[in-house]
Design a protein that fits this description.
This protein is mostly beta strands. 8% of the residues lie in helices and 24% in strands.
Length: 479
Amino acid sequence: MGPYSYSSLMLLCRQVTRDNPNLPYPLSPDNVLVLGGPFTTSLGTSGRNSRVVLNGKSGAGFVGRREFFYDRLDIGKYFNGITVVFDAAGSSKTYADLLPALNEQYGLGLQATDLANGSTALSNGYTPTPVTLTIASTSPAFTGSLSVQWSRLPAGNYPNSGPGRKAMLIGDMDAGYFGVVRADEMVAALDIFNAVLSDDAGSTPVVNPNLFWMKFAYKGQFLFFPSYHLGTTSWKALYERGSVYDSDGTGKWPPVGSPLTKQNRYIALDSPEGAVGFVPRLPTFAASDPIIGQRAQDGELYQLLGRVFPGTYTKGDWDGLHTATPPLDYSTGFLFQTTSAADGSTVWFTSMNAQSSSNLQKTGNYGWRPFLRLFDLSTVTLALTEIRGTVTQSLRKPTLFIDQNRDPNIPLRMEGVRGTIDRSISKPYLIATDSAPVYSPNSVRGRAPAGVLTPPALQITVVPPVQLKNTNGKLDGFK
């Protein structure tokens, strides 16, 4: 949109400079500041819709302040008859976060300070969603409002994030949401129960045919949470099996010699994508632990779970799973890892809508919904587990086939060759002589055909030894 890509203050300066050509210097955000306004009163006969008081910055060449009249632009009129549609970043949280994508696509220079409702929270925006951007009365260049339709781009692609969708729908790795993972995309719920609690007689699995999973990102980790209980068990039983807290480094584990001890915390199970590794743990009711009864806004109950459906105490800004098919069971309570500061023998128990909460004994059996934290199987050594199976066929020796057709390109060793030596060649006679030797064909047993053998030219010179008595002390030619 040409000049409208400038900031509001720059647009104001350009309009004032255009209408006041006698100014000693062109106005810009670098040499003036808004001392008052824009106002819509005391416009007099200016014929303009706004009034502003500008003051020169120190060292800019302007002295004092001055009042100017100008027209602010009704932004809605510049899109008359046009449906403003664009895609915004997946990390967008407020109306102001839509401005970079809007500006880039339509050549505007709107800033967060130009909006009266810039801090309003956005919905999930997974489909084109209408939003009205209202211009603030303090905007130097614009008035009115602009209706737009925006859609949220994926917040990122994470190919190693485990089962389900790999593109994050909303948020970031500090707190993000991937959507729903169907039961047939995930590991079997009964396998998870057996991996953690098969040796506890007091725990009972729960089979729900409508079970699905929610996939989150939280503080750099990938987490999976079930829509219903995987079983009933006690906080104590989970604690003994290392399935309450995420890490030993939290100081949550009892000292050596305590009756509660950590056992195998890692589980590796098969999924449609292959073997997957998880660390099971309970969600947090609050960031601190233990706590007195309160609905803390810093626990995973509100930071993650309460954002997938709307409620009295929950945002529901990531999804509306209360209307999903099958629906999310958000009103049934389950165990949390957070303990009670009022009574150390109790832990917090509440539902995903946080409608009601209570403290229950660590030894009592209640609903179990674990967070499953994804981990790389190559980073830990897992204990050997029992292998079960049924013999369907015995092993047989492989059948060997020998090809009787010889490869003609392979050389063969000669065998069974018979014959007699017709002639033999004797050693040649060497004769030392001062004259050229004479070759005699009779030296070879048997006569060679004429013209076949040519006698070699061979001459041997015999040098007699030097007599020292005749050298007179000199050895001429000695090398």
